[in-house]
Design goal:
The protein is mainly alpha-helical. The protein contains four helices and no strands. It is elongated. It binds protoporphyrin IX containing FE.
């Protein structure tokens, strides 16, 4: 059981960090493209956020909580009460909340707004959600990587 939880924690973490890196890169790179390209990239970003990043964040946080419960049950919670594990849990939880409550809704909204207007531009709301997505995803990704670093190193 423990191995399944560990495996799923690491699988979720890989999906989350890998997906977020690619999503941020695509969102930034799409800025220089035509509106049609921007629109289809935005629709793909919405899917990457729901199917890869949100799924990864949910798996990571859920298995993190189960992992804690198993350590407590096994009487090993003292041994794992190191600063690194605390920071991993705190940063991971904050990043998870940011991803699930801010980044994913912004990406879905952006996908819905990805329709070029007659003048060949996007609605002003598109730029608003685009900026919000890049900003919040960058912060969440930095926290997730901090989480990984402290989980492994400290
Ligand atoms: C992006 C977020 C996260 C990343 C990258 C991450 C990464 C890691 C890594 C690399 C380990 C292995 C540490 C080791 O065996 O030395 C680990 C273990 C663990 N993680 Fe996470 N984690 C994240 C989020 C969370 C969250 C949100 C929780 C709980 C709410 C959590 C709970 C745990 C627990 C309990 C362990 C076992 C610690 C021990 O062996 O004593 N993690 N995590």
């Amino acid at each position: 059981m423990m191995l399944v939880v560990q495996f799923t924690h690491f699988l979720g973490m890989s999906l989350w960090i890998g997906g977020a890196l690619v999503a941020i890169m695509l969102a930034i790179k799409a800025e220089g493209e035509s509106v049609e390209v921007k629109a289809s990239v935005a629709r793909m970003l919405a899917q990457v956020h729901t199917l890869v990043i949100a799924a990864g964040a949910l798996l990571t946080v859920a298995t993190g909580v189960v992992w804690i419960m198993m350590l407590v049950q096994g009487g090993q919670s003292e041994a794992s009460a190191t600063p690194g594990v605390w920071i991993m849990e705190a940063a991971g939880l904050v990043a998870g909340v940011l991803v699930l409550l801010v980044a994913v809704p912004a990406a879905v909204k952006l996908g819905g707004l990805a329709v070029p207007m007659d003048d060949g531009k996007m609605l002003p709301a598109f730029d608003y959600y685009h900026k919000r997505l890049v900003r919040v995803s960058s912060v969440a990704l930095a926290l997730a990587v901090l989480s990984l670093f402290t989980g492994v190193v400290l």
